Every structure is written in structure tokens, then in C-alpha cells.
């Protein structure tokens, strides 16, 4: 992977990061729900809606963390290196998922462990 490719990926990740931050912000502010968790007990209907919003926001946060971590690795020069075994992740993997932290082998192992 050359510098130009890395710069392109970084641009894309930065774009995604900005977009995610806006979305999370919108979700977390909500409309009428506010961010005060204590008040949820009194308003059961709203609490469910808030929960849906909040779990959507949580999912986006997870994605945001991946994107930020990938950007960090690009900056450190460790992008494309497997976090488990230190081998190159491979461009084919990164093309499918530009935030992939693991090489194909470790990814497979992780998936097997998840199931077990
Ligand atoms: Zn690996």
C-alpha cells in the first residue's frame, strides 16, 4: 500500500468520522427525550423510543471508535498491520473493510472464538 492509497483511505475515514459524529450528536440530543436518564422511569413510552435511539447511537459510537483507531494507525504508520500477529493485513481485506484490525487468519480465529 503506497502513500497515495493511504491518503485516500484516510480522507474517506475522516469523512466518515465527521458524518458519524453528526449522526451521533443528532441521535443523542434526541427531540423530546433529552439526555437525562433519571427522568426515563416516569415516561415509559418515551423511554423505549429513547432506548432505540440510544442503542443506534451506541452502534455508531462503536463504528466511530473503529474509524478513529484506523486513522490513528495511518498516522502512526501501523495501518494495515495485523493487531494480533503483526503480519500484513492484505489489501484485499482492507478494500472490503478499511478499518479492519486483523489479518484474514486472525479474523477467522476471532470469529471461531466468538461462536465457541
Ligand atoms: Zn493476524
From TrEMBL:
Residues 31-53 are annotated as: Disordered. Pfam families: zf-dskA_traR. It comes from the Bacteria. InterPro entries: DnaK_N, Znf_DskA_TraR. Residues 77-107 form the Zinc finger DksA/TraR C4-type domain. Residues 33-49 have a biased composition (Acidic residues). Coiled coil: none annotated. One of its GO terms (molecular function) is zinc ion binding. A zinc finger (dksA C4-type) spans 82-106. Keywords: Metal-binding, Zinc, Zinc-finger. This is Zinc finger DksA/TraR C4-type domain-containing protein. It comes from Candidatus Wolfebacteria bacterium GW2011_GWC2_39_22. The lineage of its organism: Bacteria, Candidatus Wolfeibacteriota.
Amino acid at each position: 500500500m503506497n502513500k497515495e492509497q493511504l491518503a485516500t483511505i484516510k480522507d474517506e475515514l475522516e469523512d466518515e468520522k465527521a458524518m458519524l459524529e453528526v449522526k451521533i450528536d443528532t441521535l443523542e440530543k434526541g427531540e423530546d427525550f433529552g439526555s437525562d436518564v433519571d427522568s426515563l422511569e416516569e415516561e415509559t413510552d418515551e423511554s423505549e423510543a429513547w432506548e432505540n435511539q440510544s442503542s443506534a447511537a451506541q452502534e455508531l459510537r462503536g463504528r466511530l471508535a473503529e474509524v478513529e483507531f484506523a486513522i490513528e494507525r495511518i498516522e502512526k504508520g501501523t495501518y494495515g498491520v495485523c493487531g494480533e500477529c503483526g503480519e500484513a493485513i492484505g489489501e484485499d481485506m482492507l478494500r472490503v473493510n478499511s478499518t479492519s484490525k486483523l489479518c484474514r487468519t486472525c479474523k477467522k480465529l476471532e470469529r471461531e472464538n466468538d461462536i465457541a
